[in-house]
Every structure is written in C-alpha cells, then in structure tokens.
C-alpha cells in the first residue's frame, strides 16, 4: 500500500468516527478515481435514516453505477473502514468498481463486538419450482 493510499484509508476511518459521532454505526468509505482524487465520500446513516441499507459502501456503489461510466468505475478504488458486508460486496460487484481496500476485516470486526451480537443468516429453502421460475428469466441475459 502506498503512502497516498494509507492517507485515503485513514480518511475512511475518520468518516467512520464521524458516523459514530452522528449516532450511527461506525463505518465510513470513499471512492477514489484512477488519479487518487476523491470522487465521493459516505458515512453509515442506517440509524438516523432508519434504513438498514444505508451503509457507506452501498451508497457509493449506487452512486458510481449512476454517475460513472463503466470504464471510469472499473478504474476506481473504494477505501473503507471495514470489509464490506455481503450486501455491500454484491452491490460493489454489480457496480463494476475496480478495487476495494479496507482497514478492518469482518473477522476483526466481529472480535470487537460483544458475544452474541453478530448477524446470522436467515433460514432459507430452495431451489424450488424450477420449471415455473425459469420462464421469466430464460433469455433475459442473452438479449
């Protein structure tokens, strides 16, 4: 990691502190262009917005998908205070961002939480009804 990248990662940590000071979970992220210039910054606002999806990584991925060309998005780097959760990682992949650099891993984050407070997956069943479910999907991705 370069000195400039360390500065950007430290800024993401500062954004996390700002989120916490504002009454939200302590997570912050920024998106840097290919030249290292900051394109956008976000803080977690899931509590104050009453929106469980208001993670900074997801907000930046949505912004990038709306505002950047695929070529520019692919040349960006997201710097984030913590490894993106599954929801955010999916959005990042779909937005076409080029790279993610994070400070805390998900495992390190869980180690900082009190026992029993980690999120668990909801019970899921499937696949089911393949013949019916494939009808609206079949051919969509080849159009």
Summarize it:
It is built from six helices and four strands, in the order H-E-E-H-H-E-H-E-H-H. It is an alpha+beta fold and 143 residues long. Helix 2 runs parallel beside helix 4.
Q: What descriptors fit this protein?
A:
143 residues, Cytidine_deaminase-like, tRNA(Arg) A34 adenosine deaminase TadA, Cytidine Deaminase, domain 2, catalytic activity, alpha+beta, CMP_dCMP_dom
SSE arrangement:
Blueprint: H1 3-21, E1 28-32, E2 38-43, H2 56-67, H3 70-74, E3 77-82, H4 86-95, E4 99-104, H5 106-112, H6 130-137
Parallel strand pairs: 3-4
Antiparallel strand pairs: 1-2, 1-3
Pfam family, one: dCMP_cyt_deam_1
Organism: Nonomuraea fuscirosea
Protein name: tRNA(Arg) A34 adenosine deaminase TadA
What does this structure look like?
The protein has 143 residues and is α+β, with helices and mostly antiparallel strands. The chain has one domain (3-119): Cytidine Deaminase, domain 2 (3-Layer(aba) Sandwich), CATH 3.40.140.10. Helix content is 43%, strand content 16%. It contains 6 helices and 4 strands; from the N terminus they run αββααβαβαα. The chain has helices at residues 3-21, 56-67, 70-74, 86-95, 106-112, 130-137; strands spanning 28-32, 38-43, 77-82, 99-104. The protein has a 4-stranded mixed sheet with strand order 2-1-3-4, sandwiched between helices. Helix 4 links the parallel strand 3 and strand 4. The protein is globular. The model has no long low-confidence stretch (mean pLDDT 96).
Q: Quaternary status of these chains?
A: single chain
CATH architecture: 3-Layer(aba) Sandwich
CATH topology: Cytidine Deaminase, domain 2
Binned, the helix content reads: 40-55%
| CATH homology superfamily | Cytidine Deaminase, domain 2
Q: Tell me the span between the first and last alpha carbons.
A: 41 Å
Biggest sheet overview? 4 strands, mixed
What is the CATH level 1 assignment? Answer: Alpha Beta
Strand content: 15-25%
Question: What order do the helices and strands follow?
Answer: HEEHHEHEHH
Number of distinct helices:
6
Q: How large is the radius of gyration?
A: 17 Å
Total tally of structural domains:
1
Overall average residue pLDDT: 96
Sequence of strands across the biggest β-sheet: 2-1-3-4
Number of strands: 4
Low-pLDDT stretches: none
Task: Name the structural class.
Answer: alpha+beta
The dominant shape is globular
């Amino acid at each position: 990691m370069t000195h400039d990248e360390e500065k950007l990662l430290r800024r993401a940590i500062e954004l996390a502190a700002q989120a916490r000071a504002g009454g939200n979970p302590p997570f912050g992220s920024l998106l840097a262009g290919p030249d290292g210039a900051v394109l956008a910054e976000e803080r977690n606002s899931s509590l104050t917005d009453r929106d469980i999806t208001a993670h900074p990584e997801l907000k930046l991925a949505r912004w990038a998908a709306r505002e950047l060309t695929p070529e520019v998005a692919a040349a960006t780097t997201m710097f984030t205070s913590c490894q993106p959760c599954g929801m955010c990682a999916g959005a990042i992949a779909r937005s076409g961002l080029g790279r993610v650099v994070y400070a805390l891993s998900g495992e390190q984050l869980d180690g900082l939480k009190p026992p029993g407070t980690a999120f668990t997956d909801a019970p899921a069943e499937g696949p089911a009804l393949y013949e019916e479910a494939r009808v609206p999907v079949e051919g969509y991705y080849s159009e």
